[in-house]
Amino acid sequence: MLTKYIFVTGGVVSSLGKGIISASIGKLLQARGFKVTIQKFDPYINIDPGTLNPYEHGECYVTVDGMETDLDLGHYERFTGIQTTRDNSMTTGRIYKAVIDKERRGDYLGKTIQVVPHITDEIKNSIKNLGQAGQYDFVITEIGGTTGDIESAPFLEAIRQLKWELGKDAIAVHLTYVPYLKAANELKTKPTQHSVKEMQGHGIQPDILILRTEKHLDDNMRMKVAGFCNVDLECVIQSEDLPSIYEVPVNMQRQGLDSAILRKMGIPVGETPALGPWLNFLELRKTATEVVRIGLVGKYDLQDAYKSISESLSHAATYNHRRVEIAFINSEFLTAENIGQLDRLDGIVVCPGFGQRGTEGKILAVEYARTHDVPCFGICLGMQMMVIEFARNVLGYADANSSEMDAETTHNVIDMMEDQKSISSMGGTMRLGAYDCQLQEGSAVAGIYGTTLVRERHRHRYEFNNKYLEEYEANGMLCVGRNPEAGLVEIVEMPSLRWFVGTQFHPEYQSTVLQPHPLFMSFIKAAVQS
Fold first, then answer.
1. Residue range 161-180: average pLDDT?
2. Catalytic residue chosen out of the listed positions 60, 235, 380, 479
3. Rounded to two decimals, what is the model's pTM?
């Protein structure tokens, strides 16, 4: 079968959940036996979101091949279990840079470079090349932003051209918002009509409409939308608010979204897949009544900043027959005077990040967890805070620190590697993507993983300083995970405590709905027993 292309766009307002809808479509087509991938086009001019503050764009997600991407790629992976790469994420910045680089090399043979055809051709090639490279049955392409944004215009023009060129092998799914006016007690479809009109102005007739709504839409309203927007009634799908994002694929299947897509593309529909393991996960979530309370200690007071961590905790809690209750603890304001707020927690996650702000609060949280034997999971910078706290309070190095925070410290237990120090470009000094980690036989983490060799994703710049390694191990903090090539410390643990593990990598990037990460599973199990 020739590769089919599904374009997902949004209108009326942002934050409607295009990423969840794209991931849900992928999940439903995958359940029918199709090979699927999903990509995200972000209209901003940054090359990637790696330099963006999380308040700007939420979590920065990292692919196996080291691409810093939008957090929606995390949804794609968690829903479908696929592993994305740099080809699954594209920004306006990368598109323009690719075109400019070609122009500088003379690839265009002296032509005047324009948005059409050069920028749009680059966008189209990024879409089609992904389908051909992986021999996928379906490529789902989500366009970030909202219809009408000036930044999105080249992407919409590229979609228009592809729909024209590919015929039935390409369809457009448009997600809009149906607001409820409380004073009038009415749902209003006019914004949807205007959004579709805007799409038609770009030369794109949506094939399927998905209506985000807080209230149920009756068939009369769906018929009204279908009539005004030139869309078949069966292709007007409503996406109501649900208790969990993981219920969205089931809701979409119930309304026949995947069937409508197949019919539009001339593909036999066949029987509806059972989604057994997925429904089992939802049933476990529904029947879990007891709560496990986990504190996220970090400096970003924003739920999307630690999205993959919170979802990984949710996955693990579900399979441990618990509901996770996450409390955010702002490390910038955590002091010795208010550290008692951690008393009510069953477990503590010390979050990743960059920069000095909030690090002393994280160190206090680590000290509390270590001295009170509270299950504690340090991730990336969180692991580094574990190392620093141990050096200060166990090894007796009062000024111990990371050279990121204090370049003059005499005990730089966290430091940049020598071969990194001469690199000046932003991101050039970072370890990004998946690296091997050799686990020490007999260690707690080796038992958790059930193997002694794992491969995990990184996003960091500073490393454990190996000149202190023997001193740490002699005093009870064991370096039980090492990169086999560079000898860099990847995991520390304290076997004298119930659960005290720090990872230099980001295990949250590997956790999916149907395959929760073993470290999170073990951490939650320990928290439940605390």
1. 96
2. 380
3. 0.94
